[in-house]
Structures are given as structure tokens and as C-alpha cells.
Amino acid sequence: MRIYAMVVPQPLGKKLAGYIMPLADKLASFMPALKTDLALSDIDMTPPEYVGASISSAVILASIIFLGVFISLTQMDPPYPQAHLLAAVPALLLFFFDFLILLRYPHILAVKRGQLVERDLIYALKDLLLHMSSGLTLYESMARVSHAEHGYVSQDFHEVIIETNEGVPFDEALERLALRSSSDYMRNSIWQIINAFNSGASVKEALNSIVTTLINEQKRKIRDYTQELNMLTMFYMVFAVAIPTVVTTVLVVLTSFVGTGVSPELYLFVVLTCILVQIFLVVIVKSRRPLVYFA
């Protein structure tokens, strides 16, 4: 998977990481969860390679900022004294900020990928159940679903089919999928299918049970989101309507006693603060929204 937060391409990042591999290897030893996050986010790099590439990317970005600020300060008339020290401050801050973000990025990608898998999982399993009900085997049905448009679920099923065609036992390929999936619901679904497949039980009944459980879980998420949305909507209306009106009225009344009016700067500060809070609430609402498809 492409690392959009990294300013250098992945092959170049691996090459640059080779020059600082001892340092990267030492830092990676303090991050045991990084290996799992890289695997779940489908990033084809080892933990030391990723840490080294992250350091290289942060250094390059910080160097660009340093040069930009330094050149700007030296072009002033007269030139700013100790411009290199002043330019180093934002460069160092950006270096640490970018490096920490990159270290967290695989986990963010893994969580995002898991959410996208869960979004498509119900319809993929329904499609799988439909093919099995028409008389196809589990392997043949999964092969059909792997060519359908079910996002990452189809991609994961396609990898199972490829591994099976290469000689890996079908149940072992399913186990590998369950172990590397970043979605808890995907893992649970695959394990239930494996248990039914190995025990000789009806896979169709297992799929029916899995789909019903996932639908109920999806409905629960929507109910929880609705309750959160009611509270967030109340906060949004408070900061969009109530607080600007009340604060402005109070300022006008208080300043009338001392003979001064409300300055444009103060009023602008109140308005901008309310706008920022509203944007923050909108971002929260969007981030909390469950990723679901509606039939």
C-alpha cells in the first residue's frame, strides 16, 4: 500500500533507510506493535526499513522548511541576525511532528482498511451465500466473489484463491486470511467458516448466522451514532447560534458601563472561535459516522 504521508517514494525510502539501518533497527526494537501494523496495513516494509524511511522523509521535509525560512530571513533588509538559529526552530518541530505522524500512520491505515472491509463484508458474504445456494462449492463461490466489486474483501478472497491454486490447502489459506486481516468482524467470520468447513457442518447455515449477526451489529452502530449525533447537534447549535448571540450581548452591556464599545478585533475573535469550534464538531461528526452501505 502506498504511504501518502511520506514525501519520498517507498523504494527510495528503503534505499535511504539502508544508510541509517543501525539507528533504525535500534528504534524499531522499541516499537513491537509496528510489525503487526505494517502487516495489517499491507505495507511491504520491515519495521527497521519503515523507521529508517520515516527518518529520511522527516529529514528531507525539515531541510526544505529550514532552507525556505533561512533564505527568507537572509533576504530581509537588513538580514535577520542569527537566521540559521531561527530557521532551525520550525525545522526541528516539523521533523519530530512528521516522524511521529509517520510512526502512527501504519496503525491509522490498518484501522481504515479494517473499516472499509467491514463496510463491504455483509454484501460479500451475501454474495458468497447466494453462489453456494445455487450449488457451487465454497471454493468456487469464493472465486466468484473475488472477481466481484466488494473492495478489500474481494481482494482478500482473491489472495486466498491464488494461494490455493499455488498448492496451499484451502483451509490453511483461509487461516492465513484470518490472521492477517485488520477487521475483527472479518476474522471472526473467516474462523466460523473454517470451523464449519473442517467439521463438516453446513457452511450455508454458518454464513446465514454470520450475516444476521453482522447486520444486527451494523444496526447497533447506527443507533449509537444517532444518539451521539443528537448530542453533537446540540453542541453545534449552541456554538453556532447561542454563544455568539449571548457573548455579543454581554459584551455590549458590559462595555456600555465603562463607555467603550465592542472593538472589531474582539468581535472577530469571538466569531472565529465559534467557527473553529463548529469545524471541530463537524470533523468529529464525520469521523464518528459508521461506514455502512444501505440496501
Could you characterize the architecture of this molecule?
This protein has 295 residues and is mostly helical. It folds into 3 domains: 10-115; 116-210; 215-288. It has helices at 10-17, 21-28, 33-40, 47-74, 83-133, 138-146, 151-165, 170-180, 184-199, 203-258, 264-288. The longest helix has 56 residues, at 203-258. The radius of gyration is 27 Å and the shape is flat. It starts with 9 loop residues before the first helix and ends in a 7-residue tail after the last helix.
Key structural traits:
295 residues
Identify low-pLDDT runs.
Answer: none
Structural category is: mainly alpha
For the largest beta-sheet, the strand count, sense and barrel status come to:
none
What distance lies between the first and last C-alpha atoms, to the nearest angstrom? 30 Å
